[in-house]
Amino acid sequence: MHRIEIGLKENIKDPRGDGIKSRIKDELGILVDSVRTINIFTLNFELPKEQVHFIAKELFRDKVIECYSFDKSLAKSREFDFLIEKGFKPGVTDNIGKTAKKNIEFYLDEKLDDEKKVFYSVQYLIKGNISKEQLKIISKSVIGNELIENFIFFDKDEFMEKGIGYPMPIVKGDSQIKVDTFDLSKYTDEELLKLSRDRCLALDLKELALIRDHFLDVERLEVREKIGLSKMTDVELEVFAQTWSEHCKHKEFDGIVHYSDLETGEEETINSIFKTYIKNSTMEIKKKLGNDDFLIKMFNDNAGIVKYDEDTNFVFKVETHNSPSALDPYGGAITGIVGVNRDPAGTGRSGAVPLFNTNVFCFGDPFYKAKLPPNTLHPMVIFKGVHTGVRDGGNQSGIPTLNGSLYFDNRYMGKPLVYCGTGALMPSQINGEEVSKKIIKPGYLALMSGGRVGKDGIHGVTMSSEERHSGTPVTAVQIGDAITQKVMLDYIFEMGQKNWIKAITDNGGGGLSSSMGEIARISGGVDVDLKKVPLKYHGLQPWEIFISESQERMTFVIDPVDLDKVMELAKKRDVEVSVIGKFTDSGYLNLLYGSQKVAQIEMEFLHEGLPKKEIIAEWKKPKHVEPDFDEPELVLLELKKLLSALNICSKEYIVRPYDHEVKGRTIIKPLSGVKNDGPSDASVMAPKLDSREALVIGHGLCPRYSDIDAYHMSACAFDEMVRNIIATGGKITDLENDEVVMWSINDNFCTPDSIYDEIKNPDGKLKFANIVRANKALYDYTTAYNIPCTSGKDSMKNDYKYIDENGESVRIAVPLTLLYSGACKIKDYRKCVTIDFKKSGDLVYILGETKKELGAGEYFNLHGFIGNDVPKVDADSAIKMYKSVGRAMDDSFIESCHDCSDGGLGIALAESAFSGGLGADIDLSKISKKGIDRNDHLLFSESQSRFVVSIKPENKVKFEEMMEGNVFSEVGKVIDEPMFIVKKLNQEIEKIGLQILKESWQKLLRFDLPLENIR
Predict the structure, then answer these.
(1) Are residues 659 and 798 in the same domain?
(2) SS3 track for 397-444
(3) Considering the entire predicted model, what is its pTM?
(4) Tens digits of per-residue pLDDT, 217-244?
(5) Into how many domains does the chain fold?
C-alpha cells in the first residue's frame, strides 16, 4: 500500500481552501483563520519505491505550484489546529481515483488487475479557535455530504501522535450468490405492502396482487417448476418494480382520469392524458404538415427525431434528475447531464452525436435563513453542487451549454428540479439504411459497453417514483463520469459509421432491466447471462446487477458476424465491452447467472399487464387576496427593486463557467450585448460549418401561474418558449403560404403528489386537475401554432415529507412546473437579432397589448401577493404577430428584439438598454393598453406575446406597414445619455441612472461559483 499526497506550496494561494473558509463564515457564521487543502491518492497495491516517487513527482503534481510526499504526511510539516480528511464511502463512484489509476497504467505500460485500486480523498487543514462539534458541522454542512462521503477528524496533537494510516473505502459484500424466493401464496395484502416498503419497490396493492396472481396461475406454475423456478425470485420482483415504476411506465399520465370542472359543471373521462393531449396533438400536426412533414420518430425511443435536411436528422431530449440531486447535488446533477447525453446517443439504430446541452434549475431561496427541514441540504449547497455538476459534465464532454435559466421558490426546498437537455445530430442513412429504425433479429447479440456495474443507482427509478423521505437509500445516488462516457460514445459512433450496430439504447433508469427489457420487445425475447456483466467489485447479487443504474453504459445490438471487429475496435479504443446476451423470439425475458436460471418473465405481461390507474381530478379556481396597495410615487424605484428579484436578476456568474464555444458552431450565446453580459432570449447554433442554416434554442417556464390556473401557466410557458425563439430569429409555420418551419420541442412536467387521499393528500383532486388543465393547454396551443412535441417526460411526486419537532407530518410540495424546451431551424443565421439596443436615435416600439395581468407575477410577489388576474395567451393574435416579426427580421428592419416575460415591460426595456450600454426615453402614455390606469401596472404587467424592439428611424414607415393588423406602439427612443427616463401617465418625468439599474440587476448573484471545487 502507498499514500501519495499533493499540496500547494505554502507561498501559493489556495482558492479551494479560501472558498471553504468563505462558506464556513457565510453559511454557518463560524470564523476560522485559514483553510488549506491536500489531495490524497491511496494505492491498495505495492509498487517499487522509485516508481511511487516518479508517480508522485512527475504524474500527480504541478511542478510550479505544488509539492508532494509519499508514504509520509505533508500535513505534519504544516501549520493547522484541526484536520478533516474526506473520502468517498465504499461503492461510491470515485472518478479522480479512477483517472489516477489510468495514469499509473500509462506510466507502467500495463493493465492493472481489477482488485488494484486508487482511492482519492482530500485533507482540509483548518486554523482557528473552534470546537470539535463545530468541526463536525463544518464537515457535513460545507466540506462534503455525509450521505456519500466519510470524514476523519483530528486536532493537531492527535494527528501528530497517531497519524492517519491508509483508510480505504473497500466494498465488503457477501461474495456468495444468493437468489431469494417468495412463496406468494402465503402473503396477505398487508405483507405484500410491507414487502414493497422494505425493498423500496414503490408498488401499490393492486399491482402487487396482480403480480401475485400471475405467478400463482396453475398452468404457469407447472411451466416454471420444470425449469426450477416455482416461486417468484427476487430478480423477477425487482424487474417488475422497475418496469412498472411511475418513472418508467408513466402510470398517472397513462391512467384513466375522471375530471370534473366544478366551475362549469363539465365532466369527462380521459383515457390517458399522454395519448389524448400530447401524442394526439403531435399526430394532428403531422397530418396537417402533409408532404412537408419533418416528424420522423416521436414517443417510442429515447428521444424524438425530426428531419433537419436531406442528409441529417435532429434529435432532442430533455430529462429531469430531481431526487438524486436532493441527496447529492453534484453527483445527481452530473449524472443528469451525462445521462441525457446518452438519450440521443441511444436513439435509433446507432445513435446521434451530441451537439449542445441545455439546463433549467428550480431551487429554494439560496439566502434562506430559517431552520432547515430535517435531512435536507441548504438551497445554496444544492445550487452550487448542481451547477458545478452540470458544468463539469458538459465541459468535460466537449458539449457546449447554450440555453437555460434558474427559478427560485421555497417550495423546491424538499426536492430541487434539475432539467437537463441535449440536442444531437444523426445521419439520416448509413449504407442506404435508415438510422432512425432499430433492427433486432433472433440470434443477434446484446453487448454492454462503458462503465462497470456497482451498487450505485440501485432503486433509482423506484425512489423517483415516490415522495422523498428520511429513509431514501444512498444506493439510489449515482455519480457520472463524463470522461469515461466521452471515450465510450466516440467508440459507439465510430461503430455506427461502419454500420456494425443494429440497435442501441442507454442504461439509464432501471439499468439493464430497462434497456434489455425494452429493446427485447423488437425481437420478442432475450436471454441474458448476468455473470458476464463486468462489476466494479465483488458482492453484487443478480438482482442488483440487473437493476443497477451505474453510469456511462450503453447496450447495443450486433450481428454475430461482426463480433470480432467490434471487440478489436473496443480494445483499440480502450473501451470495455462484454457480450451479455442473445436475442430470441421466445416471448420471454430469460435471466441466468452462469448455469443458474434466476428469472423467466413473459414479455407481454411485463410490458402490457400493468392495470391502468384510475384517478379523480376536480377543478375549482382558487380565490386569492387581490392586492390593494397604493401606486408607488417613484415607479423606477420599484423597477430597481424588481431587477434584484431572484427570478429576474443577472445569472451571468452562473452562465459564464459553462463552455459555450466548444465545437466552434455557436452564433448567439447565452450572454450578449456590448459587454456580453446581457441575457439572450435564445441561443443560435449552426450544426454544419459549411451552411448558414442554424438552430435557435429557447425555453419557457412560469410555474407560479399554476397557483391561479395551470391551463394558463402551460399556455404562457409555451408562448414564452416560442416568443424567445421568435425574438432571436426563429419563424413560425405558415401553412396558408406553404411555409413549413422545422420545430422540435420537449414538454417536461414536474408535479407534486397529485393522487387524492383523504388524510395524506386531501387536495390531490385539485392538484391532478391542474395536471389535466396544463395538458389541455398543451394540446390547444401546440395545434394552434403547429409546433409539435417530439419528446418529453413527466416526473411525479416531487414532494418531501417529514415529521417536525412537534410530531406533526409536514409536506413540502413543488408547484406544478412545466418546462417547454424548443429548437427551431432557420435558413440564415445572419438574420438573427439580439436583445440589446444598438444605436442612439433608434425608435423603440412595444409590440402587443398590455393588459392588467399581474396575477402570480414578479411584481405582486415583490409585495407579498398572488392576485387572480393570471396572464392569458390569445393564440390568433400571437401567431399573427410572430409571422409579422419574422418577416420584419427577414427584411432587416429590426435592430433589437427582446421578449417581455418576468417583470413585464419595465424589465425588458431596462435589460435592452443596459445590455446595449445606451439609455432609453420612454413615454408610458403611448403604450397600447387595456384596463390599466397605473404606471406600475403598465410597466410590470406580464401580458404575453409582447416584444420590445428598436428600429432605425429611416425604417419607420416600412416597419409599421409590415406590422399592420397587429397591436403595436412607438413609445420612445434610444439615447446616448446613460439614463432610463419615463414620462408617466400623468406626464411627470422620472429618471434613474442606467448603471444604478444594472448594478441592482447584477449584484445579488455576483459570486464565483466554481471558486470552490466541491469535488
Answers:
(1) no
(2) HCCCEEEEEEEECHHHCCCCEEEEEEEEEEECEECCEECCCCCCCCCC
(3) 0.92
(4) 999 999 999 998 989 999 999 999 998 8
(5) 3
